Amino acid sequence: MSGIWSRRGAMALGLGAAALGLGGAADAGPLDWGIDYGAATDPATARRYRLLVLEPDHARPIAPLRGAGATLLGYVSFGEVERQRPYVAALERAGALLAPNPNWPDARLADLRHPLWRATLIDTVIPAILAQGYDGIFVDTLDNAEALEAREPGAMAGMVAAGAALIAAVRARFPRMRIMLNRGYAALPQAAAHVDLVLAEAMATRWSFAARRYERLSDDDWAWQATRLRAAQARNPALQAMTLDYWDPADPRAVAALYARERAAGFRPYVATLALDHLLPEPRA
Predict the structure, then answer these.
(1) What are phi and psi of 98, to 5 degrees?
(2) pLDDT tens-digit map of 33-44
(3) Whole-prediction pTM value?
(4) I need a surface site. Which of 17, 154, 160, 200 has the fewest CB within 10 A?
């Protein structure tokens, strides 16, 4: 998720497709890409996708989820660390962890400037994901760096630059690995050359935590992200621009309209529930 929010918090709120009693469509045609952080990914649905982002911590083989020629990316959070991770104690002792995520106290914000956190990602976390058979990683919570630096410009100075440098270091260590970056717009001008895909999360719609419903964003909000995606593509013409919108799958006409809008702008869209715990194939006319 963008900013200092954890997508696991969304799952805890019960906002997923499973909670709504909704599943994949019966249409068996090919699909572009999707995200599923749930533990019960349907293999038949998963194999329809050319690109999938999955949670690598579930104890399961991923071969049954891979379609012919598909790319599978494992989720990794650069900007925060959950307290149950085996390396948390060492990071704590080294001073690499900051305050708890205010929206999800089980996660601690990470200091991207700290050498131990950088080494943990590059030497432990990412190799473990690749060892499971993933083709690369989906980098989340890099936006935390911008939020922290804006909030405390003195104490958190250099956090955004450290995030961009970390992306470059990951690319240098894993030159053939696929990297997809979620937002991270403050670091994106420097990071664009080192990633293969960039995701604009909540491009046209989002979940309102105050109103507890999905809502549309303004055209100006949409244009703000679109401008940054296109600027990144100008720096790296091979960069693929993806979008993720949130909407109620019980409203297929609205979901189809979101796909059409993003695709018409030249982006690769996916529309899901906030929890991202279930693959929701694009509605077909």
Answers:
(1) -110, -150
(2) 999 999 999 999
(3) 0.92
(4) 154
